Amino acid sequence: MKKLFSENLGLKLFSLVLAALLEFYFYSSENAISETIIAQAQLRNLSSDMMEVGPSLGKKGTRIRLRVSGPSQLIERMRLSPVKYIVNLPETLEENYIAEIDPENFTLPIGVKILDYHPRDVEFAFEKILRKNLKIELVKSGVVAKGFEIKRSNTKPPSIYVKGPVSELQGLTQVKTKPVEISNVSNTIKREVRLEPVGPYTTMDVNIVSADIEISPILEKRVFRRVPIKLVMKTGQKGRVHPEFVSVDIIGPVNGISDLKMEEVVVKVDARKINLSQKKSAQVPLTVSLPEGYLLEASSPEIVELSLLNEVDAVSRE
Questions:
Q1: Global pTM value
Q2: Which of 264, 208, 221, 244 lies closest to 317, judged by CA?
Q3: Cα–Cα distance for residue pair 97/52, rounded to 1 Å
Q4: What is the CATH number of the domain that holds 89?
């Protein structure tokens, strides 16, 4: 043991002296700097049904400006890891509470001194917390293209869960989205959209929702009268239908239905699968073919009489 302390005694003494000198320099005035740093107040004992709503920066931590002096290395470390000031709230808490700032309650590294601080006290404001579901209102900006209309619009999810102070949420039933631009649009819109904030202290379980806006052509009705019926017979057979013309009601886009021609409306009776050898006539339905984008609303009549012609009748019709 004696050998342990006596061996390399000079080197050990030098190390001790060097360490003492470094510590002396570390805490000396030559290594000291003065700087202003920001401390954040943290609340303790705040009830779960209450929240801080003041001062205005309370939601991000109430700030206290400290003028401190100490070793440059420690001051720099305090910049990276902000100083905290704990405020112990009373059990019975009113809407407003004034906390006097005591410099002794700041947790500072050894060797750092407080030269000044501001403010000297902080007035906190508190409110009851409300929790509720709010419907989402999908906001649209502009007017869709001429001849088109919005058939439906919705969001997924259709509602959100929010939590905030009574002053921001009481009486509120819905939250709005950021406006979705629909000017001159003629196609369905599907996109993600942000929600408008309810207030500075209210939190939402989601901030972005999916918007779905179905945009379709405006439909209009048009009636074609005396549309001829095209008759398709078996090879070698002749026939006729009665009546030979029909009235057809068509639904189509307002931008194009006025340009639709009668030749594009094909009304047909296909008799190739109908056996008329015994009955000579039969009641048969009509088929109506229309260009893409147009719908048949009704035809009058819907059923016509198909008659088989003998050779004499066929010659006389020709």
A1: 0.68
A2: 244
A3: 10
A4: 2.170.120
